[in-house]
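Duplicate of earlier report; Glucan endo-1,3-beta-glucosidase input re-posted below.
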Amino acid sequence: MRVPQCPTVCFLVTVAAAQLSVSVVNNLPGNTPTYAYVTAQSRDHQIVLLQSDHTWYYPHVETIPSVPLDELASIAIPLAAGGARTTITIPSEFTSGRIWCSSGTLAFYVVLNNNGEAVLVEPSVTNATDPNHAVDWGFAELSYTKEAGLFVNLSYVDFVGLALGISLESQDGRIQEVSGFPATAMADLCDRLQRQARSSGYPWDQLCVTDSDGRIRRVLSPSSQIRRNPSAFHDYYSAYVDEVWSTYSQRFLTVNPQTLASNITCIVHGDTLRCSGDDRGFRKPTAADIFTCDSGPFAIDATDNDAHVAVVPRLCAAFQRATLLLAGGDLQPSLDPSFYYTASPNNFYSHFVHELELDGKGYAFPYDDVGPLGADQSGVIASQTPRLLTLTVGGRSQ
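Output:
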C-alpha cells in the first residue's frame, strides 16, 4: 500500500470489514503534548468515544455532568512526537464521527436531555468559559458504514483552527484530495478580516479570537460570532435583501432543485417569496438567518414539502455568495465559483476561507456543497471501497 508523504500530522486510515485502522503521524512543531480523540454515534444511535485500548466507551446516564469524560475513561490518545506513528483501531461502523487533534488535552462532557438520554458536550468555540478555550484544536468529520462506505470532509462552518488536509485512496487506486490550509492561514485570514472591517465598518475583525498574549487561537465564522453577540451584523444584508425582493417582484427567480424532476419558479408577492409547489414560501431573511442558514425563513420544519426543502439551501447559498443580482443569477445554482463573492455584501469569512485554502475546498458555511454540477466547493470525499485516508493537521507548505 502506497503511503502519501505527511508534512505535518497524518491520520492514515485503512478499512477492513467493519474496522478502521488509523495510523497517526505527529509532525507538529513544539513540545506540547498532542492527543487524538474519536467521537461518533454507534449504529444504534448511542454516543461513543474511542478509548486508548481501541474499544468504545459508552457514557452512562448516571455520569455526573460536571465531570469530564477523561476522568471516567481513557479517551485521550497520546500521539507520539517527532514523526513517529501512533496506531489507532476504530472497532466498528459509526456515523457522525469526528477525529479530533489537539495541542494539549480536550475536555468532553455528557449531560442528560429532557428525555433522559445522554448528550455529548463537545469543545465550544463560542463560550469563553469553556475549559477548552485556550487549547488549539481541529477535527475532520467522517462516517463509515458497510452500506455507504467512507465519507470524509473538512468543515470550517463554525471556525478555523488547526489547519487540516485530507486525501483518500480507494482500492482501485483512485485518489481524492482536499489540500486544506497552509500553516499561516489563521494569521492571513485575520489580516484580511481586519482590512475588511476597516473598509466596511462591520465587525469582521471580531471573528479573530486571541489569547492574553495576542496570539490567534482561532477564527470564528459569522454564525458563531452571532451566537456570542446576537447584534453582530444585524443590518448587514438588509439593503441587499430589499433589492433582491424588489427585483424578484418584477421577474421570476428559477431554482434548479437538482433532486426533483423540474425547476421551481419563485416570485415575490407582498413581502413573501412564493415558489411553485412550495407550501409556505419565504419571508425576508435577516443577516443571522443567512449566516446560519437554519433560522427564520431557512429553518426547515418536519412538515415542509420537497419543493421548500430544495429551495432553502440554494437560496441561502446564493445570499452567502451574493449571486442573486448578477447576470445569470436568476437561475440558482448556475454560476460557477468564479462568480462567487464578486459582489457585496457577501460572507467575507467564507470568501477569504476559500481564497486561502490551497485548492479552494472545504465547507465554509452549512450549504457550501450547493453549486452547478462539477463546481462543488465543500471538499467532501467518499469511497465505497476505501484503502487509505490521510489527514494532515498543522498546515501544508504551499
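The first helix runs from residue 185 to 200.

Merging into the original ticket.
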